[in-house]
Design brief:
Largest sheet: 2 strands, antiparallel
Distance between the termini: 43 Å
Radius of gyration: 18 Å
Shape: globular
Number of strands: 8
Number of helices: 4
Strand content: 15-25%
Strand order of the largest sheet: 1-4
Amino acid sequence: MNRNISEPLARFAKMCLLARRMVERGVRYVQLINNDWDGHSDCPGNHQANAARIDQPISALLSDLSQRGLLDTTLVVWTGEFGRTPIMQGNKGRDHSPYGFTTWMAGGGILGGKVIGATDDIGFRAIADKVHVHDLHATMLSLLGLEHERLTYLFEGRQRRLTDIGGHNDLSERLTRV
């Protein structure tokens, strides 16, 4: 191992390499998790350190998939479970925000350079071209070749599915057309 690479960077880089190898061998779903992003007490330090750990490995993963012709058929999604408020929590932290968050997607038919949605001037809540999480999930399922409404099952007397009772697939059309 290169002694100039920090251990956390090397760990995530190995995860990305393993993910690429799994995709090459036909594994249909691979999830990489970096769960250190919770910056309640030091968002600047936390986010800078985490970005330094994952930026190069994710870039290499995308390049590797592209060079091998796998990016066209592999959907890569980078997201968190929530956004961050623009308001301070303590002296350096920020609280969770359910009103606006960032997700980026690549490959799997996604056209690069598309930006959908915007938050208000201080980044507190989504105000334009909002995407509900159910719509995001319906889109991801569609890009994976699955129709979210066909994944409905009866549980405790109620019809359930991954997109709950919502979910529209109109986002995939906006992400994949010129």
